């Protein structure tokens, strides 16, 4: 090989790699760790588009109290090492919040974000113990955690079966992504199975989840559980639904967590997926003023990040919700620290004082889209409520009211215990929240 | 002209056996070490130290480990990810069970533990060779990752199977792990540690062990006839290689990501290290560094480079172009220089010896 050419190429690569982007000081900077490549991209893309479109809409309607948003994205491919690299690339003291959209990356970033004083918002994923604000001042898990999710599904099952006594002797299976994400609810489910007397059987599925034949033969032919829950993501979801249909498992007794219930998961399985259920904590469709505004101000202006048709789908709307929470936290922080671009540390105060009530939701144009959220110094989760939705072949229909997890009696003590163990291992003195 | 060793006479055996027998090489090495220890921490930003140099050094260590086994002893292994996981989880258990133990001792002990595991999984190599051995080491990969995933004991019963490095100082006042660890501390520790380990590896492969490994690699029957015991040669190669890989795994979990799950050491990790060894050059310590640089740095440089040229380009497009260019470059390198980057450097050195007169 020609050495001179090689040398020149190496020099050129080094030169472009050292170019660092410069930021303007009059905008509020928000980084985004998204994934638009890799095996989880089909689910990552609509979320990323919704996340970005909401900021475009805010900018098109005058910013947050006049402060424009500067959004920058990095592709993690749902890969933990790459997530750390992306975080280090995008982090700046003025970053409003980090939303890694991966439980594994969240785990890897908790210490880093805390050290860098950037709020880490893991919305409906991540480390459940992080909702203890005394040990994790920079981690926010609103509006719900996986432990709440597990409890909600069990509560829903109990309601369908006719009370918690009816759970005794029932068989419940958990099909989960064999990673930090899928393992998160197991402790809660084990505690619940002891409490209510149901049999819990666990079925890990290896990344990326395309091989589930053996799992579902065992579920469908051997174990025959009364209910099956799923903690899946990406191609694992649609594969599971197809395999469940292949062994004739009744779809209305198959309930996924909120990450296992999007259009991307059910459409590949076709009509077989009808009646499949999942949790959700926000509305679908476009009948909300804020989403209408995204359509008119962003998409009609030819500025949409993705195709117009995906607006209103489950994951797109979840991206909207995640962005909306960050914007509200910034707005709250601006009331405390002034209507100017803020540092991550200041936005954290906004997160901790976050109080999105119905009046606020109305003003945001998201009335009825999600539950009111209130965060306190000690509790970074909020109500933890979610509802069950069902796929009818064309759209997701809510089939239950908001289901309440047993936070006070069961989950909160578990969270505090896990947080205390973390604090002991890391030598952290919990701060005083009273 | 630049690289002419004419006039440098070796008057003793020690001089003849030096790692760098040519004066220019010694000067170059000294400059390189000075840049690595003094220049890089002063000039590089935290991003570069934290996400480029740290993983590069750790992967270089893992690649040295695999190079000892595959490059020097000729035993193909696909168990690197599993052995890295061993190192990481052993280190975690040791660090949490004995909080008073110094980090370096923890890393070395976890390397020793991995060496034992590696030697055990090396036993089949006494009977099977080549691709068949690769399949046997694949068993190690899947078994080990499964074990760390399955049994909660390894993660101190953490809810999600994630281990997280407890904060520890390397010298009083300088944290290597945890919240207060600075990128410069991490980098300087790794530079010294990896350089020392590489020096040991270099001397190991030049000595009696290395010669017996290479004899086994080149022709095992002939080696046996001249008196090398295949049992000890092969098992020692597995043990030493696993030691290096185990230490690299522990460093990965403790110094780079800080928290890690067994999923991080999937089969992809084994292939990643194997590619480093193949692209860098089989049977070369320098090649391990070059290969690690190629595999770790290039994707990040490509990604950043494209964004630096056009910041408005979509991240999806950047990732996809990155995959294509990276793949094409691997193929290109293997076509133009199948013996790896280390061989390229050797050719360069020979050309420099004659430069500027080509004949």
TrEMBL record, chain B:
Q: Which residues cross the membrane?
A: 27-45, 51-69, 76-95, 101-123, 130-148, 187-205, 235-255, 275-301, 313-336
Q: Which domain of life is it from?
A: Bacteria
Which cellular component, as a GO term, is one annotated location? plasma membrane
> How does this chain sit within the bilayer?
Multi-pass membrane protein
Where's it mainly located? membrane
Report the subcellular localization. Cell membrane
One GO MF term attached to the UniProt entry = branched-chain amino acid transmembrane transporter activity
Keyword annotations for this protein? Cell membrane, Membrane, Transmembrane, Transmembrane helix
Q: Which PANTHER family match?
A: ABC TRANSPORTER PERMEASE PROTEIN, HIGH-AFFINITY BRANCHED-CHAIN AMINO ACID TRANSPORT SYSTEM PERMEASE
- What is the protein's given name? Branched-chain amino acid ABC transporter permease
């Amino acid at each position: 090989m020609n050495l001179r050419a090689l040398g020149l190429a190496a020099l050129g690569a080094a030169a472009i790699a050292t170019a660092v982007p410069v930021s303007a000081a009059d905008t509020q900077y928000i980084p985004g760790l998204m994934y638009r490549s890799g095996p989880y991209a089909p689910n990552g893309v609509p979320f990323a588009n919704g996340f970005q479109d909401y900021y475009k809409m805010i900018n098109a309607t005058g910013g947050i109290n006049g402060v424009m948003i500067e959004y920058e994205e990095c592709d993690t491919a749902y890969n933990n090492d790459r997530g750390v690299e992306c975080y280090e690339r995008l982090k700046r003291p003025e970053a409003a919040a980090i939303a890694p959209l991966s439980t594994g990356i969240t785990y890897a970033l908790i210490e880093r974000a805390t050290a860098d004083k950037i709020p880490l918002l893991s919305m409906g994923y991540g480390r459940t113990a992080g909702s203890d604000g005394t040990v994790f001042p920079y981690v926010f898990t609103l509006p719900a955690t996986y432990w709440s999710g597990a409890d909600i599904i069990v509560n829903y099952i109990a309601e369908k079966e006719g009370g918690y006594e009816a759970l005794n002797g029932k068989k419940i299976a958990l099909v989960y992504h064999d990673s930090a994400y899928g393992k998160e609810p197991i402790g809660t489910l084990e505690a619940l199975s002891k409490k209510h007397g149901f049999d819990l059987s666990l079925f890990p599925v290896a990344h990326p989840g395309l091989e589930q034949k053996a799992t579902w033969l065992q579920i469908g032919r051997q174990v025959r559980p009364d209910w099956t829950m799923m903690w899946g993501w990406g191609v694992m979801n649609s594969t599971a639904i197809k395999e469940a249909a292949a062994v004739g498992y009744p779809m209305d007794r198959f309930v996924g967590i909120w990450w296992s219930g999007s259009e991307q998961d059910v459409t590949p399985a076709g009509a077989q997926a009808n009646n499949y259920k999942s949790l959700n904590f926000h509305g679908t469709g476009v009948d909300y003023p804020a989403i209408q505004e995204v359509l008119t101000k962003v998409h009609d202006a030819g500025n949409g990040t993705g195709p117009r048709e995906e607006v209103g789908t489950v994951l797109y709307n979840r991206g909207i919700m995640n962005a909306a929470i960050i914007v509200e936290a910034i707005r709250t922080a601006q009331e405390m620290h002034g209507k100017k671009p803020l540092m991550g540390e200041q936005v954290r105060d906004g997160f901790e004082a976050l109080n999105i009530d119905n009046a606020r939701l109305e003003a945001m144009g998201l009335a009825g889209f999600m539950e009111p959220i209130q965060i306190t110094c000690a509790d970074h989760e909020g109500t933890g409520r979610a509802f069950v939705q069902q796929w009818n072949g064309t759209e997701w229909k809510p089939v239950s009211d908001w289901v309440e997890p047993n936070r006070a009696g069961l989950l909160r003590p578990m969270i505090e215990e896990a947080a205390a163990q973390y604090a002991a291992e890391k030598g952290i003195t919990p701060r005083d929240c009273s | 002209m630049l690289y002419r060793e004419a006039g440098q006479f070796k008057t003793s055996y020690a001089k003849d056996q030096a790692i760098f027998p040519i004066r220019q090489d010694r000067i170059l090495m000294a400059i390189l070490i000075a840049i690595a220890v003094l220049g890089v921490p002063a000039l590089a930003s935290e991003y570069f130290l934290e996400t480029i140099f740290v993983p590069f050094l750790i992967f270089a260590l893992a690649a040295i480990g695999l190079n000892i086994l595959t490059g020097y002893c000729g035993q193909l292994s696909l168990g690197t990810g599993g052995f890295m996981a061993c190192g990481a989880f052993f280190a975690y258990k040791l660090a949490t069970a004995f909080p008073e133990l110094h980090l370096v001792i923890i890393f070395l002990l976890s390397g020793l533990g991995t060496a034992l595991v590696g030697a055990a999984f090396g036993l089949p190599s006494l009977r099977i060779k080549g691709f068949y051995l690769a399949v046997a080491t694949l068993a190690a990969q899947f078994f080990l990752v499964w074990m760390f995933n399955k049994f909660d004991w390894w993660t101190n019963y953490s809810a999600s199977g994630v281990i997280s490095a407890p904060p520890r100082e390397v010298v009083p006042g300088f944290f290597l792990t945890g919240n207060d660890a600075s990128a410069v501390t991490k980098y300087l520790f790794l530079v010294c540690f990896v350089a020392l380990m590489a020096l040991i590896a270099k001397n190991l492969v030049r000595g009696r062990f290395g010669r017996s490994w290479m004899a086994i690699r080149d022709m095992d029957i002939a080696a046996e006839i001249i008196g090398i015991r295949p049992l000890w040669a092969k098992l020692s190669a597995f043990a030493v290689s696993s030691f290096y890989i185990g230490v690299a795994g522990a460093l990965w979990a403790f110094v780079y990501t800080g928290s890690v799950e067994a999923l991080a050491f999937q089969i992809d990790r084994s292939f990643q290290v194997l590619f480093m060894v193949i692209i860098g050059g089989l049977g070369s310590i320098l090649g391990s560094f070059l290969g690690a640089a190629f595999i770790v740095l290039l994707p990040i440089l490509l990604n950043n480079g494209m964004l630096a040229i056009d910041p408005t380009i979509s991240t999806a497009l950047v990732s996809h172009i990155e995959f294509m260019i990276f793949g094409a470059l691997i193929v290109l390198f293997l076509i133009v220089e199948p013996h790896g980057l280390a061989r390229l450097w050797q050719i360069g050195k020979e050309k420099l010896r004659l430069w500027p007169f080509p004949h």
